[in-house]
Amino acid sequence: MAGRLQGAAASSSPLPRAFLLLAALALFTISFLSLRSLRPAAGPSLDTAADSSVAAAVAKKDRSVLPIQPSSSVYHSPEVFAAGYAEMERSFKVYIYPDGDPKTFYQTPRKLTGKYASEGYFFQNIRESRFRTDDPDQAHLFFVPISAHKMRGKVYHLPLSSAILLLVSTRIKPIIMLLVAGLIELKLNCSYHVQDLFVWALKLLSCVVLALQGTSYENMAVIVKDYVEGLINKYPYWNRTLGADHFFVTCHDVGVRAFEGLPFMVKNSIRVVCSPSYNVDFIPHKDIALPQVLQPFALPEGGNDIENRTTLGFWAGHRNSKIRVILAQVWENDTELAISNNRISRAIGELVYQKQFYRTKFCICPGGSQVNSARITDSIHYGCVPVILSDYYDLPFNDALDWRKFAVILRERDVYQLKSILKSLSHEEFVSLHRSLVQVQKHFVWHSPPVPYDAFHMVMYELWLRHNVIKY
Ligand SMILES: *[C@@H]1O[C@H](CO)[C@@H](O)[C@H](O)[C@H]1NC(C)=O
Ligand SMILES: *[C@@H]1O[C@H](CO)[C@@H](O)[C@H](O)[C@H]1NC(C)=O
Ligand SMILES: *[C@@H]1O[C@H](CO)[C@@H](O)[C@H](O)[C@H]1NC(C)=O
Ligand SMILES: *[C@@H]1O[C@H](CO)[C@@H](O)[C@H](O)[C@H]1NC(C)=O
């Protein structure tokens, strides 16, 4: 793409007419951009969440601190889940828009490892699954297959029109200045030198190169908007419901913001995201919380190993949120809670971090820069009962799964009583939580190809539940 653009810029630069064309394009873009105020990048933080804590506390009423309920099922209603799941397996059809070069960030996952692996797995699994249909008239839902995670990695080939738009929108100031300088030169001095034009073209090229070095958030927003608007104009499906039967999937929070230039998408479409905190406008009945799963796991699943779980509680991580700072401050010297405000590297030789999950009863999962984190699925995998320590969080698959059967769900202000709350749980209660946890492990793992009841099928189930809301 750089080659194409450079070629275009270099070949047109000696022609005065090209200045006028580019200037017109630039002016158009300025007015276009000023209408569309792109929000600066800002990760969701718990601080803003805390500000509205009063309202939320009122809205949520007082939840019982103790999570144990006598019934044994990990599902809210095993019958409803079983019936819905079977129907989903039988009938669910998704149409994947075929547009976009699959060699770039359309259709394909970036990789199936790392923090954002869930996005890659979903893209890969849906593409190869039986849920996919090539007949849009059969489809219950429409998948907009653009991967923000992959886009973030590299710059790929774009159509020239979007390339120019992207370029102008991200390097707007230097380009305008160069254009104005070029126009003044022409107007005042018709006997301009080829040499000057050469210098001018070089400057413009450097702008192009800078703009193409990485796909910034702004670039992504432009690419995503172009893509979705292209689909809206080309196919009749979006307009029927204003996007309510459309969904996109993104694990990286930058992906959530990349779609914000499309208000209908935010308002109407199903957003399957790893950052389901309400301060990024997550809408629980419409959107879907995607679990963040750091695969592959370094060690096998834990389970039926209660005798080895001698540590009461464990957390080690960055203090990158208010709740984490408090957690570390209050409990760092405790002898029963292994709270360390230093991240234990997951990579270090002896797998110290992962092994600690095997030795612990309760793994504390405070919200960080994101409320969601791979720590929750790590805890589930290693058989350590997760203690969700955050307000405003839509737990993955909570339409089907009763999180209180296999996790301890606390509010942030409970951090001061953390130890007494955990100690107040009887051994039987812990055993019950642990047993249930082992039962849900299968729902929080991705496979390729997917297997029944894994994370992919759970996401499909959640999508299936939402397709009933709007039916064309
Ligand atoms: C026009 O360009 C020539 C050569 O670069 C320069 O000598 C002259 O001063 C310029 N005239 C104006 C009005 O800028
Ligand atoms: C959908 O509606 C938009 C806005 O009214 C329109 O521009 C677009 O052409 C429509 N798409 C189709 C396929 O008719
Ligand atoms: C408990 O830990 C010991 C020592 O690490 C190990 O050999 C044993 O298999 C563990 N028990 C269970 C049930 O995992
Ligand atoms: C924990 O121990 C350190 C070092 O002894 C001390 O500086 C710190 O104040 C202690 N923290 C708490 C909460 O007691």
TrEMBL record:
Pfam families in the cross-refs: Exostosin_GT47
Subcellular location: Golgi apparatus membrane
GO CC entries: Golgi membrane
Entry GO MF terms: glycosyltransferase activity
Keywords, in A-Z order: Glycosyltransferase, Golgi apparatus, Membrane, Signal-anchor, Transferase, Transmembrane, Transmembrane helix
UniProt cross-references to InterPro entries, sorted A to Z: Exostosin, Exostosin_GT47
Ranges of residues in domain Exostosin GT47: 89-148, 219-425
Keyword Glycosyltransferase: yes
Parts of the chain that traverse the membrane: 15-35
Membrane topology: Single-pass type II membrane protein
Domain of life: Eukaryota
Keyword ATP-binding on entry: no
PANTHER family in UniProt: EXOSTOSIN FAMILY PROTEIN (PTHR11062:SF43), EXOSTOSIN HEPARAN SULFATE GLYCOSYLTRANSFERASE -RELATED (PTHR11062)
Family per similarity comment: Belongs to the glycosyltransferase 47 family.
Protein name as annotated: Exostosin GT47 domain-containing protein
Organism: Digitaria exilis
